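Students often ask why we bother encoding 3D structure as a string. The short answer is that it lets us treat folding as translation between two languages. Here is a chain of 216 residues written in the first language.
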Amino acid sequence: MSDLVLHNYYRSSTSYRVRIALVMKGLDYTYVPHHLRHGEHLEPAYLAVNPQGLVPALVLEDGKLLTQSLAIIEYLDEIEPNPPLLPKDALGRARVRMLAQMIACDIHPVNNLRVLTSLRTLFGAGDQDVVSWFRHWVNEGFQPLEKILASSPETGAFCHGDAPGLADICLAAQVTNNARFGVDMTPYPVIARINAACMALPAFQKAAPQNQIDAE
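And here it is in the second language, the structure alphabet:
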């Protein structure tokens, strides 16, 4: 059994991000699933681990807790530098963080499960309303992201150069989530190309939602 324990949910895109990073770094971990749709993340046993009641949560060898996927991934990048997930230069690191945060901070928070559930319970949104909401906010984020990636000389086979990094991890997880809501990727050829390059890699495949022990 690994000393790292990852509390996650197979379909959570934030959990997917951390799984990709762990596999890329070659770090073994114990997989602990929490079914979000069944409310298992709100049970007392898990709240004792993570008072926020969200996934992912990574418990370290000494019992310390890390939450928030970007913070976890940057921690992993510091303790296991290879392969690097951020460029060596300050401007490159800022660009990759910018791209990652366009997804992780602007798109994901308004489209996560608790927000979509609240649309239903607080405002009476129906299934198509929720789908339209999800697609709207993806498009709001992907339109500028596509323009930046398409126009930037730093964009290569991946978001920044020719090796996958933090931004690609966020991009691939988001595109995977998009498929469940039928987001049309036709307007985003660069994003689609980068996603295809990511999904051809073993780490992205191994960490994919359908390949987890709690997949349904």
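Translate back mentally: The longest strand covers residues 5-8. Keep this in mind for the problem set.
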